[in-house]
Amino acid sequence: MEHPSIETLDQTQLSRLMRLGINGPRRPVDALIQRLSAQGGKEWLARILQEDLPERERSLIKQAVERSATLDQLQELKSFAKDRLTVAKTENDRICSLFSYFISLAGALATHGQVITSRGADELELVLLDLAEALADAESGGYQDLVSEGGMRAAELTQA
Amino acid sequence: MKQDVFPQTLRTWIGARLVDGKQGRAEVNRHLMSVYLRPLKIYFLGTSERYLGEPDDVVSGFFADRLARENFLDDWIASGLSLRRWLCNGLCFYLKELRRQKYRDGRAAELNDDPVTFSGDPESAMDRAFVAEVVRVALSEARERCLADGLEEHWNVFEQHHCLGRPYADIGLEMNMKPSRAAVMTRTATKRFRDALRELIARDAAHEDIDAEILGLLEED
């Protein structure tokens, strides 16, 4: 495998690397990532998947992970999540809703190659890959695969 | 009440080391030599005083002279300037001193007190060189952090994608992993790189908005 020489990076490569340093404003997904990455993130995820989320949402999430959810069902999951987000009384309720929301977006991309939000594919790529990274330590139930594949499909759409 | 003009970021690294005695100052000096030597050489080459010597000798002489002064960096903190601008200003004064010294030694013609002049835009050239140096140092530091955390493979994927511009599909094929896995591993290493880069920019910055500093430097492209 060829290894790059730092000395030979050209201006375009340097600018691209420099751009990676930009944090940007805090995104909604960051609260979810923070919760998953915090101590007890794995247990938190297990609990919301077993208890906190409404049964219909849990069922749709399961279908999304199994790649059997239709686009309509993923839209339904997204709507549930958004509705719950607007009435969330606690931070935990808010973060639970965000989990469902991003699973719906990832499912639509990974399974159907569709963007079901007004967010651009370039933004979704980074959001989903960051979320997938946080899921790496928090679970082993296929969520990371779904979300990372969603991020990859978003990347393909960005390049198309 | 005296206005507090020292951004917190400056206090956190350079400022903290300045009150940390000889060892702290030595660490700051190493940082300055590592990040600013090349940009200052490029800046020097854009001045009317470039006849004064080889860039290596002149800039090394500048660092040796100014960093030996107890207040040089304290004065920078009080100036509110970015560190690279402060060093540029300091270099211009040093060049004038060098010119006078050469005159006294009979090795240069007498010159009045004209300020140093420039050909082209040495500040922009220096900023480009500064970008190259902070990226270089950040890559090196991020690699060390990845290795220390047992993330050598993550770092390799990062290099392949971000430095060599290879798509995840090719990297995955070569490293026997799913492209999506390669993408996630890259994000892990990217976090280390971002942290290292932002720390370096924060040490230079005149204010705390690191995103704005980065965007400002990218505008120089």
What do these coordinates show?
The complex is a heterodimer of chains A (160) and B (221). Chain A has 8 helices and no strands. With 160 residues, chain A is an all-alpha fold. Chain A has one domain (27-159). By secondary structure, chain B is mainly alpha-helical. Chain B is 73% helix and 0% strand. Chain B is elongated. The model of chain B is unreliable at 1-10 (pLDDT under 50). The interface between A and B is large, with 32 and 42 residues.
Cα end-to-end separation of chain B: 41 Å
Q: Report how far the terminal alpha carbons of chain A are from each other.
A: 28 Å
Helix-strand string of chain A = HHHHHHHH
What is the succession of H and E elements of chain B? HHHHHHHHHH
Low-confidence segments of chain B, ≥5 residues, pLDDT <50? 1-10
Q: Which pair of chains forms the biggest interface, and how many residues does each contribute? A: A-B, 32 and 42 residues
Total of domains of chain A? 1
Helix share, percent of chain A: over 70%
Instruction: Choose one word for the global shape of chain A.
Output: globular
Give the oligomer, counting copies of the same chain as homo and different chains as hetero: heterodimer
Radius of gyration of chain A: 17 Å
Our count of helices of chain B gives 10
Identify low-pLDDT runs of chain A.
none
- What percentage of amino acids of chain B are in beta strands? under 5%
- Residue share in β-strands of chain A: under 5%
